[in-house]
Amino acid sequence: MNIKCLVVLSALTMLHACTVAMTIPRAFNSYSGINFLFGSCSVQEYYESAQACRREFFNSVRVDRIKSENCSSLYRDLKTCMLRVFNECLNNSMLESYLFQYDQREAVEDNYLTFLGDERRWCDHGGISSPVVLHHGTNCDPIYSHVTKDCVALYQLVFNSQASQRRLCREYNRAQLCIFRSTIQHCSFTTRPLSQMMRLLVNMELSYQPYCHKWFGEEVVSYYNLSSGIVCPPRSHADVMFLADVSEGTDDGAFESMKSAIRRVVDKLSYGMNGIRAGFAQFDDRILMSIRMNRYSTGKRFLRGLSRTERAAIRTGAPRMTGNALSWLAKHLYVNDTDLSALRPHHTPVCVVMTTGKSQDQVRSVIKTLTKRRVRVILIGPHLTNSTSLHTIQTRDKVSFHDHCGNLLQEICQADRDYREGSDDFGPGSFLFENNSPLNSLNRYFLRFGFTHLPLLWVPKPVVPQGPMGFNSNSPGHRYIGNVSEFLDDSNFLEGELY
């Protein structure tokens, strides 16, 4: 950015700091300290105006149970009305001045129309269809697009029939509920603003009904009702590397107990694109990558691979170098450069270290390094004691790791919660989209004042339907595509090779 731009931006920043109290509307919609606006409009004002546009469309598209033959014209009227609401909230607002400064005014309007949908969505599908775009930063599993198609199929059929308003009301509600429930169950939201915006969106949409004034046969529900059953376990979004001590002090019974504990943990957590991923490595003074983090796409496949995994060859006098093993992972797995990491962006990085005795090298310093990278290191073994600075689990003896599955689950789930709730919206890895995106820069700037604008979060990303395993058959190896966070190829270190 040149000096002239810096001067202008600095001036705008000072002006905004002085006038922010005057430009913020009375009514905010706030979640956990983040307030949402739409230019000069409150969220409530925006949604009331937008819903009025949609209601006019629905009132006109069907008359006396007959769908209008002039739907194309009605869709153009809807689009014009929604753009008028958009411009009324955005024109002459502080947000608009920033958008012009970053040359993003047109891009934001294009994004807005993308989420509105095309004529087919409104005239053929009745305004509800399986999502073709998601908000950037939303990661959904491979079956999401298939599930949501089932959600809307009956409503779309009824919309194109001569059904009564009562029937349309009921099917519209069921379709909306199904889509939002599927989104909550099959998708994760990678930043606090995005997650809370989705809560706001669900609550606003579920309170809106174009065909009737109340729900027939069902109570009005909210985001809380839909999400209250989705907890950890089984729901987690962690990338977990299990690190097993195979030094001279670990016998075969201890190694099998470690594998048994891993099996129990993985079996109790959702696994896959929208769940956990797991890897397995063995160490003494070297490290053996037995199962790469992105090797298996399902929990069953991981467990089969783990069952087939044999202990590394026992070496007489092999020392226990826990710090060395963690340093290797810090260099090759838990790296700051996302282009080199095998971890999924925005997912909780966890390392579970299973040892049978004290390390013969320095451990605390490398754990401190990993903690700075937001990696949760969990230590489990018979020699450990409770620590205020480390996450430790003490086993009864060397062969009782499998008895502490519940403790491990608690630690992993707590790491997941801490990662989400403690997410720094200005830190590495927490951005909604590319770090150098102008809209992301604006979003970060406004968040410093405790609020943000909805159009800055409305960045579309296509939903790409996938096969049952989530692989793109045209892609080499295990690289994932579409509406999910990608695993980057970690073939720079190979299974079965000692390091």
UniProtKB/TrEMBL annotation:
Domain VWFA: 239-381
Keyword terms, alphabetized: Signal
InterPro entries reported for this sequence: Collagen-VI/PIF, VWF_A, vWFA_dom_sf
CDD domains: vWFA_subfamily_ECM
SMART domains noted in UniProt: VWA
Stretch forming the signal peptide: 1-21
Sequence intervals crossing the membrane: none
PROSITE patterns tied to this protein: VWFA (PS50234)
Protein name per its UniProtKB record: Uncharacterized protein LOC100185619
Organism, as annotated: Phallusia mammillata
Species classification: Eukaryota, Metazoa, Chordata, Tunicata, Ascidiacea
